[in-house]
Amino acid sequence: MSLSGRKTILVVSILNMTACASPSNLHQIQHEIKSLNQDMQRLSEQAVSVSQQNALNAHSTQGVYLLPSANTPALVESNIGMLKMSLVTVAPAAGGTRVTLLIQQNRLQPLPAFSAIIEWNSHEDNANTEPKKATGQQFFSVPVRSATADEATITLILPDTTVDTLRWVRIHQITPLNQAVALPTH
């Protein structure tokens, strides 16, 4: 049977089912279709964000970019080994936005104490172009958790930004804590 024949049978079958459906069943079907459409829209937007995050990281020579809307971890090669980083939460906070980073060692070894710099952009910009200059930056450190801990969670406040305008964060200059890192000046 041809593809157009199958489509015709499918359309006729759906029409028959909706014609036989009670009004409450029809309402439920319409509600489920609306819900599925919303899910598809959300997943489509997330797929675009994941592609943008991957493109930013493909062109990055240092550090890792994370887009809040991507909701996907990214790998970064650092001075302490390969790390997997993700934004666990992005929420409003007094005077800015609270972000929680999950940082995981990508091999079965304890995560050493380290320091890094987080930069962020809180302006609307076109994700298809090079990322605009960071609108803020902050130094942070992660102490040794335990001899067996291969991950760390750290919460930071990004001042003077909102959840709605946070475009990306970039973590770079990841250095073992026994080595000093100078915060760059602009």
Describe the structure.
This protein has 186 residues and is α+β, with helices and mostly antiparallel strands. The protein has one domain (1-186): Lipoprotein YajI-like (Immunoglobulin-like). The chain is built from 2 helices and 8 strands; from the N terminus they run ααββββββββ. Strand 3 (81-93) and strand 4 (96-105) form a beta hairpin. The model has no long low-confidence stretch (mean pLDDT 82).
**Net shape:** elongated
The tally of beta strands, per DSSP, is 8
Instruction: Supply the CATH superfamily name.
Output: Lipoprotein YajI-like
Q: Give the strand order, joined by hyphens, for the main sheet.
A: 1-8-5-6
Q: What is the CATH first-level class name?
A: Mainly Beta
Per the CATH scheme, the topology name is Immunoglobulin-like
Beta-strand residue percentage: 25-35%
Helix run count: 2
Q: What structural class is derived from the secondary structure elements?
A: alpha+beta
List segments where confidence is low: pLDDT < 50 over at least 5 consecutive residues. none
Please report the distance between the alpha carbons of the first and last residues: 67 Å
- What's the architecture, going by CATH? Sandwich
Mean pLDDT: 82
Task: Domain count, please report it.
Answer: 1
H and E order: HHEEEEEEEE
Helix content: 25-40%
Question: What can be said about the biggest beta sheet?
Answer: 4 strands, antiparallel
State Rg: 23 Å
